[in-house]
């Protein structure tokens, strides 16, 4: 079977997290051919793969959301929209009712547009923006609204106009633009469409937009609602929605996903792969070493971790913190973290860059995660498989992973509120001073991995899922609508 994996902002340009998940998936299914349809932010990423692709990846289709932005300067041509297209575009902007994506796809892929400018400078576009101002944003200058809506629609316009490779099955690994492409593929070819949602994409975009400087305050709600509508497209078109843990399922239902479509397949790791580094350090835990398996990017909130460690050092002066992960994804944020370390004058923090994690795990006493948003973080699974306790923010599945769901196994760590570096520091200090507690939590984590989160179970669940769609064609897609 030929399967098209649709990824946004991850594989194969970024290591860890969703990228590692995709790489593991395609590597363990040599019986299937995979096409990777990858959506990147910048053309400069083209060909900059961080993974050696397995031989069953037969094509990588690279698309970029800035690829044709300069073409919008060309002179526009006259544009005509059908009544259905006008209403669909209006609903996409206003959110008064669910957007009708079939006429939207026809509109945005119309051959009457040579460039984005043909649509974004057209009378129908200005008319829709004028209606939006009149109905919902009467206090906002029209020109500002035009530019705001253009910046929203341009990436969607660019993404849906690319050719989509034909496949037997389409599998998006997030909502957002990747989810819309999966929905479009189903619309075009009538083939089944699966959606796996690791974190809740629309919630993550909401977090980013609330903090963003590039979005003016009165446009933030508009952007947030827009991303929720993109997610709704994926939920509506998907034949099945796979999520990783129960809380995600509850959120998806709150956001309008049909509960009958949703199934839970948790991620998993092979504990045998970590046997050589499992358990407390051989040197007896002096000094106490804290580790973070993490990309240095804002969503991981490394600054909270640094502030927390500064407080830990006041009570455990011999403690060391190893932040293990690539720093090249957001150089500006990395430099801000370095400056924060210097301004706090905190010693004992080692920024390792990209490393082989197992070379460090064996020396760690405790693993930290300070993210503001997660799905089911591989870093926590790896820590548990290594019998290391974890102090994590209460995001994604971390509470379920560390405390279990009435499984009779004790805690494998502690969760604390997001951005509460003082609370995180208190829990770290408690564990630093109690080796027996650290070791018991480590044993609990390993037991929970073996019982609920094995890599074999993860792969077998997807093997059965893919097998259920072998031979599926137009009839299956039609039956799901």
Strand order of the largest sheet: 3-2-1-4-5-6-7
Helix content: 40-55%
Please outline the major beta sheet: 7 strands, parallel
Q: At the first level of CATH, what is the class of the largest domain?
A: Alpha Beta
Second CATH tier, the architecture of the largest domain: 3-Layer(aba) Sandwich
Helical element count? Answer: 19
CATH superfamily of the largest domain: Glycogen Phosphorylase B
Instruction: Extract low-pLDDT stretches.
Output: 474-481
Number of domain modules: 3
How many strand units? 13
Structural class: alpha/beta
Q: How far from one another are the termini?
A: 23 Å
Form type: globular
Strand content bin = 5-15%
Give average pLDDT, whole number. Answer: 91
In the CATH hierarchy, the third-tier topology of the largest domain is known as Rossmann fold
